[in-house]
Write a structure and sequence with these properties.
The protein has 507 residues and is of the alpha/beta class. It contains 23 helices and nine strands. The chain has helices at residues 4-19, 25-52, 71-74, 79-87, 93-99, 106-111, 121-132, 139-151, 166-176, 193-204, 208-213, 215-220, 230-242, 286-291, 297-308, 321-325, 329-340, 401-406, 418-427, 430-436, 456-461, 468-471, 484-506, and strands spanning 184-186, 223-227, 249-252, 266-271, 309-320, 343-350, 363-369, 378-383, 451-455. The protein has a nine-stranded mixed beta sheet with strand order 3-2-1-4-5-7-6-8-9, with helices on both faces. The radius of gyration is 27 Å and the shape is globular.
Length: 507
């Protein structure tokens, strides 16, 4: 969630561009993205140098003759000398950026279009000075910056593209537990938030030896995605590069169009596809229309994921609530395909404030496995009521920051009283979801509880409806009222008292 202070800082940078004669929003977004990337490259190099002191082996990003390209050195230079390094089209910093990654990699292909567009040395100086004041050590901050920048683009968000909050991404990754053998895809990759989170999970749960043994897979084939926006392609590629993926496989293609022919390729899909986009029917891949005959992207993406997953592959996907209960033929057919012909594992309903302030839509996470032959027995439903933040536009944190980041109640949880633990849960359901999901098949809770199982047969009988409210039972508190005669007698008495008061006033 972008804070008022961060928004103010970005607005100041934006105004610097405007007063410096750069008013095209796409140009501003791209130039800022390049500068953030250059700053991140230096920070990544600094971290690697510290690791090297502890025996970690790494290939330097900057050669001996490229030290001037490091942010820490650039910011100390004379204004004009710095601008010359940026504007030099032969030996400057942008030819260096374009050379990152192997010669024929997709990263190199997308970065070939990267050019320097700040003509005035003073503007570059002011922008770098203001960027230096922003603490970008938190990955969420970079995502918030990108989201705010993109919101300034004309038509931004019209396709239902909203940045997924990082803690929701982390939840989905924790539930799916990506491993070194996985081939992971996000077909609506955006800034690559899901793929970056998967890489961080893999780095955290594997030793250096194992990571080195799988380095070729990690660098070239593990991380995949599709995106048709040129700016997003570069942002996603740069984001993954900074997280140790040298040649991310991000394809420049409209995911649900005929041009995307990938099938049976991935073992894991993590995604938050556009909620309310549409596509021209003539350009939709024919196989997708066979599963769900529609132009709605939120349905087409589900059909695409089923096609792109290998048998046994799994997916965790955010969908708007309408996908779960829509009564149209296309809605029913995609739900039937997932439940009857594959294996639906879970439906995690999320509160409507999760995507605020960008959108107030109600959503859910659905988790399924591609089998092609059914297998759904009982589906686990969970009613997430609190995600750790307020559900208004402010999205203030409701629990301790460390607790929120760690997804646990900490080592001292046992010392907390039952009331204190309940109070934590009331504000933050994500640890409970992570704890219960692996044992979901043994969930014996009643339909009145926050999670419960629903058998295949019942879902089939309800027209494949997957909304939690269809199956959740609500306990109504019984209220006893007095008999009508007693109530009437009470009214009569009150009326007599009122009349007596009126007489006293008139006297």
């Amino acid at each position: 969630m972008i804070t008022g202070e961060l928004k103010s800082q970005i607005d100041q940078i934006w105004n610097t561009f405007w007063t410096g004669g750069i008013s095209n929003t796409i140009t501003i977004v791209e130039q800022l993205t390049y500068l953030i990337f250059i700053k991140d490259l230096d920070e990544t190099e600094t971290r690697n140098e510290r690791k090297a002191q502890r025996g970690f082996v790494h290939t330097p990003i900057f050669g001996d003759d490229q030290q001037d390209f490091r942010w820490k050195n650039l910011k100390e230079m004379d204004v004009n000398a710095r601008h010359n390094i940026f504007s030099n089209t032969v030996d400057g910093i942008f030819p260096f950026i374009r050379s990152l990654g192997s010669e024929k990699s997709l990263f190199s292909t997308y970065m070939k279009g990267a050019t320097f567009g700040i003509s005035k040395p003073a503007v570059l100086d002011q922008v770098m000075e203001k960027l230096e004041r922003i603490d970008m050590s938190n990955q969420d901050t970079k995502g918030d910056i990108y989201e705010y920048l993109l919101s300034k683009l004309e038509g931004g968000g019209t396709a239902g593209q909203f940045r997924t909050p990082r803690h929701i991404i982390k939840l989905m990754v924790e539930l799916m537990k990506p491993g070194l053998e996985d081939t992971i895809c996000d077909p609506s990759v955006g800034t690559a938030g899901f793929l970056v989170a998967a890489k961080e999970y893999i780095d955290k749960h594997n030793g250096v030896t194992e990571l080195d043994r799988h380095s070729a897979h990690i660098n070239k084939t593990m991380f995949n995605g599709t995106e048709f926006d040129a700016t997003m392609l570069r942002i996603a590629s740069m984001n993954l590069y900074l997280h140790g993926v040298e040649e991310p496989n991000i394809m420049d293609v409209d995911a649900v169009s005929k041009d995307n022919t990938v099938s049976d390729a991935y073992s894991l899909v993590l995604a938050n596809p556009p909620f309310k986009g549409t596509i021209d029917k003539d350009s939709i891949a024919p196989g997708l229309k066979n599963v769900t005959d529609t132009s709605k992207t939120e349905l087409l993406f589900l059909a695409l994921m089923l096609r792109q997953l290998k048998t046994g592959g799994r997916a965790a996907v955010i969908v708007p609530d309408g996908v779960l209960f829509g009564s149209g033929k296309a809605h029913k057919s995609i739900r039937q395909e997932i439940v009857a012909n594959n294996k639906l594992e879970a439906v995690i309903s999320m509160p409507s404030g999760v995507f605020k302030p960008y959108a107030g839509v109600s959503t859910a996470i659905i988790i399924f496995t591609k089998t092609g032959s059914g297998g759904t027995d009982k589906v686990w439903f969970y009613d997430m009521l609190a995600d750790g933040k307020s559900l208004d536009d402010k999205r203030n944190l409701l629990v301790d920051q460390e607790l929120f980041d760690a997804f646990s109640f900490g080592d001292g949880a046992e010392a907390l009283s039952e009331a204190e633990q309940k109070a934590l849960h009331d504000n933050f359901n994500l640890p409970d979801i992570i704890k219960r999901y692996p044992n979901r098949a043994q969930d014996q809770r009643a339909r009145t509880e926050q999670s419960f199982l629903v058998p295949f047969q019942e879902i089939q009988e309800n027209d494949w409806d997957l909304s939690i409210n269809r199956y959740k039972e609500i306990v109504y508190e019984e209220v006893e009222y007095d008999a009508p005669g007693v109530i009437l007698e009470r009214i009569k008495k009150l009326d007599e008292e009122r009349n007596l008061l009126m007489l006293n006033i008139l006297d």
